[in-house]
Design brief:
Largest sheet: 6 strands, mixed
Structural class: mainly beta
Order of helices and strands: EEEHEEEEEEE
Low-confidence stretches: none
Number of helices: 1
Distance between the termini: 37 Å
Shape: globular
Length: about 120
């Protein structure tokens, strides 16, 4: 049984928007900081946004003012609203706890931004 399931990716044009969702098990989600990560080909996953159990958020400089992370504790779900997408945002996006637990990575969801 998958503990983290990402969805919402797709192919969009430069300047477009997407909303990613991450459905997590309660044991992973509850009382933990959650984050969105992305992975470019041949590179390690990097953190792009995180949200604390209390709702405080932080963003990588590359996505600040364009992306917004949020959490719905009742649904055990984390969201990433992505606006003004750029080709350099093309990557596989993953959710996880923050700090990441290396044992629970899901399959991710592909985001491709055309120029």
């Amino acid at each position: 049984q998958a503990q983290l399931v990402e969805s919402g990716g797709g192919l969009v044009q430069f300047g477009g928007s997407l909303r990613l969702s991450c459905a997590a098990s309660r044991s992973i989600f509850r009382f933990f900081h959650m984050g969105w990560y992305r992975q470019f080909p041949g590179k390690q996953r990097v953190l792009v946004a995180r949200v604390s159990s209390g709702g405080s958020t932080n963003y990588a400089d590359s996505v600040k003012d364009r992306f917004s992370i949020s959490r719905d504790d009742a649904k055990n779900t984390v969201y990433l609203q992505m606006n003004d997408l750029k080709p350099e945002d093309t990557a596989v996006y993953y959710c996880n706890r923050y700090p990441a637990d290396s044992n629970i990575w899901g399959q991710g969801t592909q985001v491709t931004v055309s120029s």
